């Protein structure tokens, strides 16, 4: 407790009384905000202020234990967004959690460490983002990482992983049933890949690396980059429970000179803070575009609808939203083969918790999403039927990259892990998801009130390619479940029409119990529309690109047409990546830190 009270992290009331003298203001402690707060203050000279709407991460146990990540959802440190009704998903509003605490979503996420596909970044370069191809970003991926080898993964080439960075990664102990998932994936034609994070790319089936430290604790943006030593720097100030409500522009409207903030808990007390050199937005894919628009920077027509004077017409703010859509498919398993005992029984889980608290690691160090299979749905080895000979299916994948990932989880995942498999049953879950959706949506304002959440419309499954791709992903999951050796662990039945549901148990298991080869694409698509959920990876709403015509920021991550204002978070991705977004975001921030330091150094030289 003493540690918490002596925390160097400040709050809004401190800010009200503080003497203001900041060179750089960073808005939002997303993983990229944490990277920048660390890197920009490491010279001991640049005075940095990091502003976070949520609280500190230091006293929140569920954020530290890898296995309890889902307990953070719907908590006081989750923003708890919901999308607009999705017309292609039976008009459902989907739950979108986002972390509201130091570290942002990196403090509540599933801890999967993934570089994604090299050609994802080459695509960025092709789209006009010079220097942001794989060769340009790989040094930043390696700079951030401190990989600790793990027994059973001797086939990972350590020299291809980072070893001196602040962000700790390793492997956990996968359950035998999950190792059988990997073998079964090989059986259906997806090769084994010992390491998803190399220049050779990410196609294949394997166990995930996770961002877990040597004590078995989560290594988040906050724990890795905002260590007690970093927080003790006299030139770094971190303020929590403080919502940034507006960016302040100079009187000629050409330069960002500061921000307006409010007490997030009391929802009042506006205060203006000035930045001598830069304001950097790292408030994430939802809040960054909202904040730009609240400040009069965005699509003119939309701003006028909300009586916000347009100071800088920037049509792409809030546009180009992409997200990864997944379908959880549960398969009945034999008793004793899964980890349902850990998820569903607090008494059984207690010894595991005590073991973890004593730093003895154990089952609590699993992130649950232990394994995955990445593949292309146009791979002839997987033998899918062409839907229409005249209009053959064309995958949206990048060259040599996958378009589907199937995650394997050794428990029955219902409601993101908040509910377990039906009583008396055991399950594993496979989550096929679209890696390169064509569907794009937007973040738009509901009002000019900074406390009101914006409208989130990811526009899921709005193209036939996306529907076909997802259906092929689900088919492959069903094939893996019926392949050796996994099928021996499972207790599958034979359901003819999965969409005929008359009990909660059937609602959970019908698709997993059905035979893929007997189902039409339409029958599978019908199930997907009822069950699909987010995989939590929104990107692109302030994307990087050539000009105001196609994007929001340039290749130095400066907002087009404005001085002193940058964006550095997942909203700058020109197009989504083929996997999990956090390592790419951290790499973007590491690279951005070098770019910003160079420009700050030039400024200091002129001062
Ligand atoms: C439940 C979940 C599971 C995930 N699992 C994985 C995974 O296993 N692996 C992986 O690679 N990725 C995962 N992700 C995605 C990954 O965490 C994000 O891509 C990453 O955190 C970057 O997101 P972001 O840039 O949108 O910002 P976020 O991480 O969402 O952070 C934004 C921060 O800004 C703060 N903020 C927002 N508005 C304001 C404001 N106006 N003033 C002050 N502060 C503000 C927020 O409170 C928050 O701290 C997951 C995400 C979630 C939510």
UniProtKB/TrEMBL annotation:
Residues 146-165 are annotated as: Disordered. Coiled coil: none annotated. GO terms for molecular function: flavin adenine dinucleotide binding; oxidoreductase activity, acting on CH-OH group of donors. Pfam families: GMC_oxred_C (PF05199), GMC_oxred_N (PF00732). It comes from the Eukaryota. Its cofactor is FAD. Residues 284-298 form the Glucose-methanol-choline oxidoreductase N-terminal domain. Gene3D superfamilies: FAD/NAD(P)-binding domain, Glucose Oxidase, domain 3. Keywords: FAD, Flavoprotein. The active site is at 537 (proton donor), 580 (proton acceptor). InterPro entries: FAD/NAD-bd_sf, GMC_OxRdtase, GMC_OxRdtase_N, GMC_OxRtase_C. Residues 146-164 have a biased composition (Basic and acidic residues). SUPFAM superfamilies: FAD-linked reductases, C-terminal domain, FAD/NAD(P)-binding domain. Belongs to the GMC oxidoreductase family. This is GMC oxidoreductase.
